[in-house]
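Comment thread on ticket #2218

A.B. wrote:
> Attaching the input chain for the structure job we discussed in standup.
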Amino acid sequence: MLNRLVLRLENLFFSHRGLVMVAIALFTAAMAFFAVQLRMEAGFEKQMPTRHEYIQTFQKYRKDLFGANRITVVVRARHGSIWTPEGLTRLYQVTQAVTFLPNVDRQGVLSLWTPNAFVNEITEDGFRANPVIDGTITPSQVTPAIVARIRQSATNGGYIGTLVSHNGDSAMITAELNERDASGKVLDYVQFNHLLDEKIRKPFEDAGYEVQIIGFAKQIGDIADGAKAVLSFCAIALLLTALAVYWYCHSVRFTVLPIVCSLTSLVWQFGTLRLLGFGLDPLAVLVPFLVFAIGVSHGIQQVNYIVRELSHGHSTMEAARSSFRGLLVPGTLALITAFVSFITLLLIPIPMVRELAITASLGVGYKILTNLVMLPVAASFFNFTKAYADRALEKRERRSAWLRKLARVAEPRNAYWVVALTGVIFALAVWQSRDRVIGTLQPGAPELRADARFNRDAVSIASNYDVGLDWLTVVFESAGSACDNPAVGLFEDDFASTMKSEPGVVSVQSYPAMLRDYNEGYNEGNPKMNVVPIDSGNYGGLSAEIGRIKGYMNKDCSMTAVHLFLTDHKATTLNRILDDVKQYRASHLMKGVTIRLAAGNAGVIAATNDEVEKSELPMMLYVYAAILVLVFLAYRDLRAMVACCAPLTVATFIGYWFMKELQIGLTVATLPVMVLAVGIGVDYAFYIYNRLQLHMANGQPIVKAVEHAMLEVGIATIFTAITLAIGVATWSFSALKFQADMGKLLAFMFIVNLVMAMTALPALAVVLERLFPRRTPVRAPGLLSH
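C.D. wrote:
> Ran it. Output below, let me know if you need it in another format.
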């Protein structure tokens, strides 16, 4: 039935090849119209796994807690101190500029110049809160005497280390961003990043003052700017691929053809994304070009098949039709496997990852048409001389000569040794990769290099301020009002005290800490009164004062918060602190009080890491299940299932080991690469095993069948892997660290999968044939039985 279907498709496409090419050209033109409208889009909300416990906590109390989506701007005097009239004037100007940026929550802007920065003072009339800088003072009125007074107020208010650096050379402004404006329009982070440079950095940074900016908006904007360089590196990879293909086939037409077909599917992919209303996320910008690599891989196999048929004396039409028949089954199986691999990314309930899954799946799905239909049909229009065919045959024989030695892995004695060695490597890779990290392994923005401006700013701010740049908010929910029950404050205070000593915690800000400070202030600054009051009346009165400050409690006092400011958001730091919080939650119980994790930007990152970790194993199991099912449907042989999948599994764990050694964490950016590696590995396995099965069906013994299979597709497979590895290796020079890491990882995985396909797969096939002899003749795969 499958044979008849493919023969019908062959006759349909090649009998109407002109019409097919015109239809493809028209569709490509239409998709190109929409593709050019595709824009890079980022979103803070898209990073969140909405169903996760941490994100539900964050969403429930986001209006009452510190916003996780904030920007931090620091004005630093390059020489001397910020405590000068000029320094405070510059701080005022930057504060005003930040306040009036679009999508900034103006009530949430905090600076020495904003009225929400106040000093609590004890007077004869009681407790009084005065702004650090009086509202009647303007920058033009700032004199050295007023500067000294402001400095004293900032010191008394506890703002040294929070709004002013310890060495006094800089001051901080923080602002929370609303992702949607009043009309519901979503913030364009790429454009907003440019606005930060144009409105904040360029006007106010000069020889006297430096302006440092960090936050999600700045980070994702810098990544988007760096992602534009992806095009140049992909162009380099494209050029290297074209030169290599030309060296392989010595034909300009065969060089251009697979590249044009892969680019065509890229146009279709971008156009469809635009029609679906998606943009291209900066963290997913590599995915279309990874799919492009899959297309080139299949294209080279098609060229190899056609050139081989030409060298046997067939016409171009016959060679193209033969290529269509011979590669439709293994090519479709490989692409369907890659399609399923990317679709499994939908298991991760993060909107950005799901968009990525759709992006990648569209690209792979279109490859079935462009690489398995368009390419051979287009090739049928070419005409080649007998001399070219003879030269192609001569080159093929010359290049394949050394493969006869490699094919000796199929000799029974060698095969057992190769399988045993593969088993040892697999065990070692599993052992070495057992403690690989889910999440980031570097502080700052791991997508950017350590010397990037964003990371340099982040390091500078973290080293000069007590408040860490990453914070984890732990919420205490009370059945009643926490403001009427001192026991809640005492319970929370014990938790905060315990967390202060945890490695990775820079400082702790909390509701009970505020109670302590206010209680001391109301008692004439007596340090003995720096405790949580146990008198309910006093306790409730202080809570009312704290309620004026955002971030520590909600209006009905059913929620109070502890903010843990961290040294960084590395996975090891987050996991250790989260484990400690969970352990405390399990061992310290209070009736009517629930400890909930977690808000803050570290809570969002931790939730993302958790979802990636939870989804990884099921996702990989689904991918391998799909591969096993497809292999069985194609070959109806359990030996084929083991021979194709076992080497792939070994390569995957070697990849995990490689990631661990290079300190590349498994994140939403690296996960698609590992999925792609599985797809590429399956490509190699299907093409080799397909020829092996054919020769065995024609009566050849397994050892000879392996030799012929490797002679026929081995050179194309080796050539494809090395060419693609060299191309993506150029990404190592990218300004984006995650692109450089992906280049190294991809290049490594291309080569590892190649080695596994050319050694472990044939050796395993031989061992399985000897251990489980066949009782019936080998069945030719698909159409190849003709």
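A.B. wrote:
> Thanks. Noting for the ticket: The two ends are 13 Å apart (CA to CA).
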